[in-house]
Amino acid sequence: xxxxxxxxxxxxxxxxxxxxxxxxxxxxxxxxxxxxxxxxxxxxxxxxxxxxxxxxxxxxxxxxxxxxxxxxxxxxxxxxxxxxxxxxxxxxxx
Length: 94
What we know:
Blueprint: H1 3-23, H2 50-64, H3 71-77, H4 81-90
């Protein structure tokens, strides 16, 4: 991976952390969110629930024009901040 790609990825990851925290009304700092930590479920430091997933999905649609079509797709994309960044890149949104 070249340096520009790494910088772009890190910028996207940082933007996604902020988007998630804002959409879910969380007080944590983006620096406190691990790129690889699960976002949903009992092992998640943020402990996002189904309402949070809906809020993040709406924010993604507004910001990137990408919809998470169903709960299965949302769970896969929102496995971690890193997986969400890869999902957006694969969708051509980032």
